[in-house]
């Protein structure tokens, strides 16, 4: 049976194939899980490489100790999650429906909703089979390239990421986000997704920017 609590296991890739399919079907109809998934998606890298710890042949005393450790670990995970989300907000600007979530990577100050624009060298593309359309703005920086994406005509739920591809084929993930079931830039939900990040790949060495489903298909390719 699908549980709301499966959102963490799904985000971390811990569900079996059948359970993952059942949860994705649940995700398309649930009003709360997409929001939870957006939070946990930012946490996935923090738990990479960790393995579960098992307690074998535990007696009453060991069971009490295991319970105490479990509860303490839960508190630690909650605190770690809060710190990670604060760090995420300090490095990514996400605007959807006119609401700002986060801060610009280059500034410690909050960025007002009107401050984010697609600037610099602009490039656009669309997917003829799905209708998904996007425009990016590229600005050269001393540390690499600042990338701003305006995405529309996309429906969810989807766990997405923006990937920079160099002229030599090197791939760098710049940011990730969740597309809710309602989508962006579609009838009934006209607001576009406007998001900003960056890559260490130099502007002149960029070949294309791709919008991809995490561990899945490419939704949109924008040559630069």
Reconstruct the topology from this structure.
Elements: H1 6-11, H2 17-27, H3 33-41, H4 60-89, E1 93-96, E2 99-102, E3 121-126, E4 133-141, E5 144-152, E6 158-166, E7 171-179, E8 193-199, E9 206-213, E10 218-223
Antiparallel strand pairs: 1-2, 1-8, 3-4, 4-5, 5-8, 6-7, 6-9, 9-10
Molecular structure report:
The chain is of the alpha+beta class. Helices cover 25% and strands 32% of the residues. The chain is built from four helices and ten strands. The protein has helices at residues 6-11, 17-27, 33-41, 60-89, and strands at 93-96, 99-102, 121-126, 133-141, 144-152, 158-166, 171-179, 193-199, 206-213, 218-223. A six-stranded antiparallel sheet has the order 2-1-8-5-4-3. A hairpin with a 4-residue loop joins strand 6 (158-166) and strand 7 (171-179). The radius of gyration is 20 Å and the shape is globular.
Task: Throw out a few tags for this protein.
single chain; 224 residues; alpha+beta; six-stranded antiparallel beta sheet
Report how far apart the termini are: 46 Å
Number of helices: 4
Number of strands: 10
Shape, principal axes of CA atoms: globular
Largest sheet: 6 strands, antiparallel
Which percent range describes the beta-strand content?
A: 25-35%
Structural class of the secondary elements? alpha+beta
């Amino acid at each position: 049976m699908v549980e709301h609590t499966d959102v963490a296991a799904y985000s971390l890739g811990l569900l079996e194939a059948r359970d993952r399919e059942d949860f994705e079907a649940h995700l398309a109809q649930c009003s709360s899980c997409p929001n939870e998934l957006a939070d946990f998606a930012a946490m996935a890298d923090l738990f990479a490489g960790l393995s579960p710890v098992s307690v074998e042949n535990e007696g009453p005393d060991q069971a009490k100790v295991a319970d105490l450790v479990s509860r303490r670990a839960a508190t630690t995970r909650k605190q770690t999650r809060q710190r990670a989300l604060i760090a995420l907000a300090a490095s990514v600007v996400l605007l959807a429906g006119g609401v700002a979530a986060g801060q610009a990577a280059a500034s410690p100050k909050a960025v007002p909703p009107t401050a984010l624009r697609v600037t610099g060298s602009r490039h656009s593309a669309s997917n003829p089979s799905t209708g998904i359309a996007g425009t990016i703005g590229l600005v050269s920086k001393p540390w690499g390239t600042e990338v701003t994406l305006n995405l529309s005509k996309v429906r969810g739920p989807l766990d997405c990421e923006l990937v920079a591809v160099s002229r030599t084929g090197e791939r760098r993930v710049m940011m990730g986000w969740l597309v809710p079931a309602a989508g962006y830039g579609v009838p009934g939900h006209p607001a576009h997704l406007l998001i900003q990040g960056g890559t260490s790949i130099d502007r002149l060495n960029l070949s294309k920017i791709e919008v991809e489903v995490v561990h899945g298909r490419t939704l949109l390719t924008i040559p630069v």
